[in-house]
Amino acid sequence: AACFLDSMATLGLAAYGYGIRYEYGIFNQKIRDGWQVEEADDWLRHGNPWEKARPEYMLPVHFYGRVEHTATGAKWVDTQVVLALPYDTPVPGYMNNTVNTMRLWSARAPNDFNLRDFNVGDYIQAVLDRNLAENISRVLYPNDNFFEGKELRLKQEYFVVAATLQDIIRRFKASKFGSTDSVRTVFDSFPDQVAIQLNDTHPAMAIPELMRIFVDIEKLPWNKAWEITKQTFAYTNHTVLPEALERWPVDLVEKLLPRHLQIIYEINQKHLDHIASLFPNDMERLRRMSLIEEGGTKRINMAHLCIVGSHAVNGVAKIHSEIVKTQVFEDFAALEPEKFQNKTNGITPRRWLLLCNPGLAELIAEKIGEDYVRDLSQLTKLHQFVDDDLFIREVAKVKQENKVKFALYLEKEYKVKINPSSMFDVHVKRIHEYKRQLMNCLHIITMYNRIRRDPAKLFVPRTVIIGGKAAPGYHMAKMIIKLINAVAHVVNNDPAVGSKLKVIFLENYRVSLAEKVIPATDLSEQISTAGTEASGTGNMKFMLNGALTIGTMDGANVEMAEEAGEENLFIFGMRVEDVNELDREGYDAQKYYERLPELKHAVDQIASGFFSPEEPELFKDVVNMLFHHDRFKVFADYEAYIKCQEKVSELYLNSKAWTKMVIRNIAAAGKFSSDRTIKEYARDIWHVEPSDLKIPPPNEPRDSAEDKTLNGTVA
């Protein structure tokens, strides 16, 4: 999202990023005795110089209450009000004198909160209770790819939506487009002036909210309101894991947002009537496509609401968009194939090259000029230097300098001696079973066993760096962190291993740490089970910064291999088709365990307490999962992964061949600029044209700049 804001400003789009100003962001992670411990991230403690509160744009948001049906239409009454106070943060474009706005909402209690009702006069308690309203923007839910149907979370989702839509409509009415017929605003041009992109289903309540505003407040007829709403919204899907899809209990929505539930029911009724007219008597299809899931507790399927209420739906990498169309939402895609698109994710080269890796950025500029920063496709010009011995040496030198710098950082923070000439093998991302940090762990144990079995044999030295946060309630992810740290403790303290293998768990992985570790990485680990990682963006950051990738054919890895040539990535393991085939025949982990002696040895060590001698049973849950309910099939890809890692080590011995492959990767990374992604959203979904125009700086008189800005008009 931050990359997208940077690109939208750099491309001169009049775009706003809206969200919540959380008082506490994602927790700070501490590792104590090998376990993750969470600490509150009080990021505003010392103030935030970049934000400006805008109390003049404060807006009311309503909750609870009931619906009255009157002659003039539905009225939502007896609600509780929370105020939304906006804070604006500037988003500067790159060298184009454009500054956009990120507007984040903070929750405030109205001054008469708990004092307006026939209160028994407990003024003190009433003031203390203001916290209840203000808790809405207190803390970010730290789940990754997991839906937890909590009331506070639904309040957060509606809070950001209600405040933002009021803001957008206020701005529309104030513009020349919101032309008024005496009193009533004409909204016909709304979709031509406003595009709203739903980033996942979290803001899905925007669809019934905009309908409520149009129908109940602005008194538009339903069908007209629905057409405008659909033309305004577009939805981006970010995951296919079923446990991540938002399915809100009807009872909760009815209590918190009674009018919105009625509107959702109405949307669903018209939607199902349409399906029934096309597929008479196909009750099964109606059940599959309904916005309401029956059976047990009734739930609203928010993804279905987003698809029905949007004019465009997209996935975030080619393979992901295919899965969205052919598997997850196949009924909807069969109905409206033209609605479904792909927009492969991208990253901003300003942060993820210039800012974090100035040495490499400068080296590239010396060869091909500085224009690539705004047009990353120009990196293909580097192909002509792939055999240039001087350039090869310079690229290797920049990487080595970055490694030395990061090694010093690690030695300072972790008190371990790092060999800067070892291969920096890095696996940093949220800790999740589908991302298969466990498979990396099994490779570490396998390398360790090989070193101990044959200490005299040539071994390519590695520093394996794993980092990432586990959701606080995700038991297995926390066990995986403990296991990695337990293995690290054994490996790092075994004199037989010495400097050949070091394992580090990187504490509190976050953007500022990514900016340090990514430029220093030799090998990027992107090893999710095929069909589970929607896109990934870390994979692109590593590619742009001169790391080679070991990965599965998943997410954007597929397109990285397409751009660079599969022979320039270390691709291994099952493809999506193989995973589906294995699901059909039934995945039997035991089979691999018995067939592969090195796998058996590693798993037995974990199970027997070799890495946890004080508590031999410590990892029994992990081992049990791997044998009996591993949805992500770690053992099935183990052998291919180990063999692929051997090829990696072999290439690393030939520094020149390695660096040539690095250059081919950097030269192929141009597609993965978020500038390209945003141009595609702009043209295919928002119907606006990006502009390369440089607005004249504020110190330059406007008329002297006329010729530069097409008669001086600026969006």
TrEMBL record:
Belongs to the glycogen phosphorylase family. Homodimer; enzymatically active. Interacts with PPP1R3B; recruits the phosphatase PP1 which dephosphorylates and inactivates PYGL/glycogen phosphorylase. Keywords: Allosteric enzyme, Carbohydrate metabolism, Glycogen metabolism, Glycosyltransferase, Phosphoprotein, Pyridoxal phosphate, Transferase. This is Alpha-1,4 glucan phosphorylase. Residues 692-715 are annotated as: Disordered. It comes from Semnornis frantzii. SUPFAM superfamilies: UDP-Glycosyltransferase/glycogen phosphorylase. Its cofactor is pyridoxal 5'-phosphate. One of its GO terms (molecular function) is glycogen phosphorylase activity. The gene is Pygl. The modification N6-(pyridoxal phosphate)lysine is found at K541. The keyword Phosphoprotein applies. GO terms for biological process: glycogen catabolic process. NCBIfam families: P_ylase (TIGR02093). It catalyses: [(1->4)-alpha-D-glucosyl](n) + phosphate = [(1->4)-alpha-D-glucosyl](n-1) + alpha-D-glucose 1-phosphate. The keyword Zinc does not apply.
